[in-house]
Amino acid sequence: MADGKKLSSLDASFLYLETPEMPMHVGSMAIFRLPDDYKGDFFEDFKAMIVSRLHIAPILKARLEKAPLDIDHPSWVEDDQFDIDRHIFRASLPQPRDRATLERIVGWMHAKLLNRARPLWEFYVFEGMKDNEVGLYSKMHHAAIDGGAGAALTNMIYDISPIPRQVEPPTGGVKPGQEPRDIAANLLDSYQQLFSQPLDASQAAKNLQLPRTGKSDIGSILFDNAMYQIESAVRFAGNIPTVLKSVSDVLGKVADPKSRESLASMVSPPTMLNKTISSERSFAGVSISLSRAKALAKQAGGKLNDVVLALASGVVRRYLQQYGTLPAKSLTAAVPISLREEGNTEANNQVFGMICAIATNIDDPKARLEAIIAQSTKSKEMSHPLRALMPQVSNISMLGAPIMVQILALLYSRSNLSDVLPPAANITVSNVPGPRQTLYAAGAELLHIFPVSISTHGQALNITVQSYRDQLDFGFIVGANIIPHVQVMCDMLPEEFAALEAAYAPPSADIKGAAE
């Protein structure tokens, strides 16, 4: 990463929307078990392993370089003062040194902003836990990573055997910066490439790469932005047929009475979860069986995501009922959807989302899951035309926008508007696929990896789940001023899972008849 790489508009938005009350980093709480005969220093072994593999993920050594006066998006540049000891820390866990204590500490640490003067990630190692366990809390700014890229980083950090694999050291020198005459020559070559392929506009638009200076002075920024605007205009022109088709599909669905009913179901009722959050967080994690959840989804004729939504629905419904605040109308969930193509491991964000009603107005668990399956199918159909539009609109760039967006985000945060505005969704629910085989780090077996995601104003509760081996690890994160002890809600999930399984179990008479 010798040359600066400017952030996309989507990546940069996570920087602009960040406030002291609303950090925009994501992370995980991993639990390891050391071998019984382990004699080393896990913290030092883990740190040495990460140092030896930093070149696999250049984003880990990249810091932000702001544009003058914030007139354009910042760039990732290599940190020439990178120090691993400012990113991996040996942390202390007070008695009784169990997972519940670790979860409370993680909630507290997740509320702290990352230092933008350094690469935007930190690891904390908690040794001395019960049963020879070690905790690892990691966090990385969402501007640098999404769930798909996080899975790619997992492959960098972990091994598939207790003996760490040997990683080849980096090769090759630093790519020299371009001189003005080289930039001008490349610019002419790019225009020649564009006009030599007039009959295939979409392919020419896709391949067009105008030169950049990669520098941070204001003249270079203006030049690079002009090159970007030309590229964007050409790519947009090449994709006009796709854009028009997507717009036509959206208009067609809006005009359809059935689709309007689906849109009405996506309107979110206000709840106690949809308020302004403080700068404190409460975190808890819980695990259930992946194979049993998949079997339940198959019985219901749905997907694993539907079961995850049903479990989240049951937990939130039960919690709100305890406080007598469950709305008559169904709550909704914001569900991120990855746009990342298979094999794409770039450290950036390639995601959009859909809103889905989660049937909290239905008491019966089986009927609730069936309603969620129907609603999620409708939501996917409604959002499908937008998938083609997202690459066109997710990287819109306008000079001066960064400072404007940051001012608006701070104003929204300080004005408590989320207390009076209708919520876009009531909760966020995300499902990140993970590896099925056992993983190791520096010789320690990975037992669990609980996601730790983002709480926002108006959507205080985020439930993210990651699959690993034959388990689903759920991470609940919430603004602590809304739910001081989210462990209470987390403990309800296994009970909701048992209720769902019981709802789909064959009647006892059928079981007895089959036995005879």
CATH fold-level assignment of the largest domain: Chloramphenicol Acetyltransferase
Strand order of the largest sheet: 5-6-7-2-13-12
Known CATH architecture of the largest domain: 2-Layer Sandwich
Alpha-carbon distance between the termini? 69 Å
CATH class descriptor name of the largest domain: Alpha Beta
- Integer average pLDDT: 83
Could you characterize what this model shows?
With 516 residues, this protein is an alpha+beta fold. The chain folds into 2 domains: 5-157, 2-Layer Sandwich (Chloramphenicol Acetyltransferase); 272-434 and 453-504, Chloramphenicol Acetyltransferase, CATH 3.30.559.30. The protein has 16 helices and 15 strands. The protein has helices at 9-16, 42-53, 99-110, 147-157, 180-195, 201-207, 218-238, 240-255, 257-265, 290-300, 304-322, 365-393, 401-415, 487-490, 492-504, 508-515; strands at 5-6, 25-33, 62-65, 75-78, 88-91, 121-126, 133-141, 281-289, 332-338, 351-357, 427-432, 440-441, 444-452, 461-468, 471-479. A 6-stranded mixed beta sheet has the order 5-6-7-2-13-12. A 6-stranded mixed beta sheet has the order 8-15-14-11-9-10, with helices on both faces. Strands 1-4-3 form a 3-stranded antiparallel beta sheet, with no helix packed on it. The relative contact order is 0.17.
How is the secondary structure organized here?
Layout: E1 5-6, H1 9-16, E2 25-33, H2 42-53, E3 62-65, E4 75-78, E5 88-91, H3 99-110, E6 121-126, E7 133-141, H4 147-157, H5 180-195, H6 201-207, H7 218-238, H8 240-255, H9 257-265, E8 281-289, H10 290-300, H11 304-322, E9 332-338, E10 351-357, H12 365-393, H13 401-415, E11 427-432, E12 440-441, E13 444-452, E14 461-468, E15 471-479, H14 487-490, H15 492-504, H16 508-515
Parallel strand pairs: 5-6, 9-11, 11-14
Antiparallel strand pairs: 1-4, 2-7, 2-13, 3-4, 6-7, 8-15, 9-10, 12-13, 14-15
Enzyme class: transferase
Domain O-acyltransferase WSD1 C-terminal: 349-500
EC number: 2.3.1.20
